[in-house]
Amino acid sequence: MKQAAGPPSLTPGGRLQGLTLREYQVAELITEGACNKEIARQLNITERTVKAHLTELFRDLEVSDRLQLAVLLNCEGLASRA
């Protein structure tokens, strides 16, 4: 079972509330335009693990690719800081 790990600023009913801490971190880096290799390096995990987190994000948030994920994250208030 997943633990809610998003920051308190997210609305309680938001779609991001059910993400694990690591999924949230991956999602945050996606909004910054990071590729899998960059995400892996920054989080000290393998690219394969990044892909696994992305697969879970796509499934849980009902999106089919990175672009849809980034748009959803932006709409949910996880906009890029860059």
Question: How does this model look, in words?
Answer:
The protein is mostly helical. The protein has one domain: Orthogonal Bundle (Arc Repressor Mutant, subunit A), CATH 1.10.10.10. The chain is built from 4 helices and no strands. It has helices at about 20-30, 35-45, 45-60, 65-75. Helix 2 (about 35-45) packs across helix 3 (about 45-60). It is globular and about 30 Å long. It starts with 20 loop residues before the first helix and ends in a 7-residue tail after the last helix.
SSE layout:
Elements: H1 21-31, H2 36-43, H3 47-61, H4 66-75
Number of strands: 0
**How is the main sheet built?**
none
Overall geometry comes to globular
Examine the coordinates and then state which fold CATH places here, giving the name of the CATH topology: Arc Repressor Mutant, subunit A
**Number of structural units classed as domains:** 1
Oligomer state equals single chain
What radius of gyration results from the CA coordinates?
A: 12 Å
In what range is the share of β-strand residues? under 5%
Helix-and-strand structural type: mainly alpha
CATH architectural type: Orthogonal Bundle
pLDDT < 50 runs, ≥5 residues? 1-13
CATH superfamily placement: Winged helix-like DNA-binding domain superfamily/Winged helix DNA-binding domain
Rounded to the nearest angstrom, the distance between the terminal CA atoms is 32 Å
**Run of helices and strands:** HHHH
Number of helices: 4
| Helix content range | 40-55%
Mean pLDDT: 82
CATH class: Mainly Alpha
